[in-house]
Amino acid sequence: LTLESVNVSHAFLIEINTSAIRLRFNPAWHFHGVATLQFHVWDSTNGLPHLSYAGDLTNVQQQSAYSTNVGTITQIVASVNDQPVLTPTADITQHITEDVPSIHNSGMSTWYLWRGRVVDNDTDAQAGIAIVHPPEWNGVFEYSETNGSTWYSFPFGGLNSSAAEVLVLNATEHIRVRF
User: Fold this and answer.
1) Do the beta carbons of residue 172 and residue 104 sit within 8 Å?
2) For the whole model, what pTM was predicted?
């Protein structure tokens, strides 16, 4: 049962005469945070019994069927790590000139690989890529953690997509290919 819009003059009445009647909060997809529900207790002497929208609490001070105090139910929905989603058009082609000296090959920011190609519902997620497939050996793939000041070769050798090893680069690092 999904509740209609409720308010002080259109309260949803639940007669609690058995432990079988339950309340729960079913969060929207990817929602995490706090959800609250406020209620008054009801003695069922005024209003239609059992699961109706007949509750009118506009003047609760004069109606003895409802409590004057308000109770609150708080549900805290814990965040989980949602998988990032790579868009289907995520292949990137970068053109460089053959025989270019390494000093003139500035590489590509890993942020460029991420930007506009990845959706991650975790607002606190750190952007990054995990390199798992060895490249073709027509050059040397390198990465830099210093915006291109120092370059390191990818540690490929036994690294493959079925292995537990990966090279993880965050969004501030750069990659380049050197021939």
Assistant:
1) no
2) 0.55
